[in-house]
């Protein structure tokens, strides 16, 4: 099989497969490095990035470089733009998060909405007599100019819509349809005290929860791809080797068949020649 593997065509295929495997290894290393940075950054204390207007553009994506870091914002809460986000479990309690729009004045004179998760409270405290969530039972936001401090988080994936002031995710695509634009693409999870609400716990965003495992999975996939390329080359060598053995076997069988046919033609001729001689002697 070694002689087959050293043939020029298969050596060229090997070079191609090795190049593909090296490329997969580099991509796997890159994904692993991203996962390692994400995990390391979570072990460190959140960085204070300053005013949200200097950190994130309106409508700009919340990247892994800033997600979970601390920002500040100044503006005015709009009590009419507030939703309850149910279905959370915080500190072993069925919890509901209160999200309110903070109107932030931009440098160009316009105003943008910044969703702020002001805090959470037990779901029972905002459940009406009919057993459904009642947004009117949530603590109202403070009035006037306020300063907010919290973690910048990426929008959660939108699945269901907002009905009666109740949502299942903190999803800015849903909120912009409900409240209007312009709006920041992420939201701020408030870490400072708010009347009637407990501060938000760390990392409610599905983006920040899953990114490290996602990158680790990608790294494993690239390693498997690289191993598969080498497997293909080995399979190609084995197939070529077996094909050569089959060709040699067929050639040998043809030679043996040819010898057998020649021997059978000679035997009857000898027999027929001997018969008249025997008759003549008699």
UniProtKB/TrEMBL annotation:
<keyword id="KW-0812">Transmembrane</keyword>
<keyword id="KW-1003">Cell membrane</keyword>
<dbReference type="InterPro" id="IPR002994">
    <property type="entry name" value="Surf1/Shy1"/>
</dbReference>
<keyword id="KW-0472">Membrane</keyword>
<feature type="compositionally biased region" description="Low complexity">
    <location>
        <begin position="266"/>
        <end position="282"/>
    </location>
</feature>
<feature type="transmembrane region" description="Helical">
    <location>
        <begin position="216"/>
        <end position="233"/>
    </location>
</feature>
<keyword id="KW-1133">Transmembrane helix</keyword>
<dbReference type="Pfam" id="PF02104">
    <property type="entry name" value="SURF1"/>
</dbReference>
<comment type="similarity">
    <text>Belongs to the SURF1 family.</text>
</comment>
<feature type="region of interest" description="Disordered">
    <location>
        <begin position="253"/>
        <end position="282"/>
    </location>
</feature>
<protein>
    <recommendedName>
        <fullName>SURF1-like protein</fullName>
    </recommendedName>
</protein>
